[in-house]
Amino acid sequence: MIKLKNVVISGKEVLPIIEGGKGINGTDGRSSGHFAKEGCVGTISLVSADFYDENGKPVMERSVRIKRQERHEDLIAGAIKGGIAQAQIAHEIAGNNGRIHVNELWELADSEKVISGVLEGAKGLIHGVTCGAGLPYKLGEIASSHGVYYYPIVSSARAFQILWKRSYANYSEFLGGVVYEDPWLAGGHNGLSNAENPEEPQNPYNRIKELRATLNKLGLQEKPIIIAGGVWCLSEWEDYLDNPEIGAVAFQFGTRPMITKESPISQAWQNVMRHTKPGDVILQRFSPTGFYSSAIKNKFLSRLMERKDGEIAYSLEANEEFDTPLALSNVKTVYIKAADFAKADNQMKAGYTVIQETPDSTVVFLTPAEWAEMKDDRAKCLGCLSQCQFSAWSGAKGTTGKMCDPRTYCIHKTLFDIGHNGNTDANLLFAGHQVYRFAQDPMYANGHIPTTHELIEAIKEGR
Questions:
Q1: Domains plus CATH for the chain?
Q2: Does the model's pTM come out above 0.85?
Q3: 3-class DSSP assignment, residue 236
């Protein structure tokens, strides 16, 4: 049995065990309510959370309106409605136990409006807001105005210092803690900076120690650090408990709760995770957000990797280096290096006959079917991100003014689909790098799916 001490989270003593908020339908009112019921912290994802029709079925179509700005408005209205619905479900399950948090991605378009709308509509049901994927500098102001605690997600002490100086110093009363999400181990989007090598992971202990030293200097000694990314069983983290270099600490479990009886994850998705092996999770940069992200290698991700490997640099004008013409269409020809001609020719002979430019003066090769799907996805864009490299949408201006990038994909489409029983080979499967442990953990042997209660008991015992 691990000697766990309760920690004050969002104004109440709870077990230092937190459910990580995960994407579209990765955590919902049911999963988070059961976490809170066990005296822990449950986390509802506000990323297009489900709301229901009069028959209690999830509303699958978010918008059918013609203009992208109108579809975006419908998306935001639906996200607010869904967040409120899930908060009500969580509250009913949890009763007065534990804490209920919500998680939002800052780089979503109108994330401030979604957070404010949900907190207003679910007043008294939500105790804390966790937010990352960018620098959520307005999070303190928004949460404080609703009397709710806030928890920024950072991957370094430097990132928190920026947030503190820019905003949080003015809203320290409701700063509930800081989430340290390890950028090499966490699933989904990762906070790697341009100065950090994705192939050279750093020791999380030293980074967390530095974060604690920063918090102490700012007079935030009592604020807990919530460790996220790579957390599976607490027996592996005992050095962080009762450690003055780390201070008050809690642990966020992202991957492990994905296979429980209360998890909204589909059976097909769970089956993929059960058979994942070490090295099957890839840290890559195909997301239209521009961030690194971690996902299970499947046909969808493999095709993105193949497309990237087939990329070729070009010049608009012929010169000594770029001297070989390549026809993009009947009206446009570019020039590639002679050494790259065979690479281009082999792809076209394999059926990748649609050649598309990227914003980096390169071209990639697609099949006609891939290009048709890409055009359709862009035409149906909901404006889900503050800025999207795939569709060139901008929440601030309507468009980024840049070329659409064919090396990426519609993130809302694939995450919404996989979150609603979609094909596990045709969609992105975000996952943490510990997902292979499902196949090794005795709790999941012989197809056993534990309840949230069983999982929490195992975590408390260090199993």
A1: 7-270+438-460 (3.20.20.70), 312-406 (no CATH)
A2: yes
A3: helix
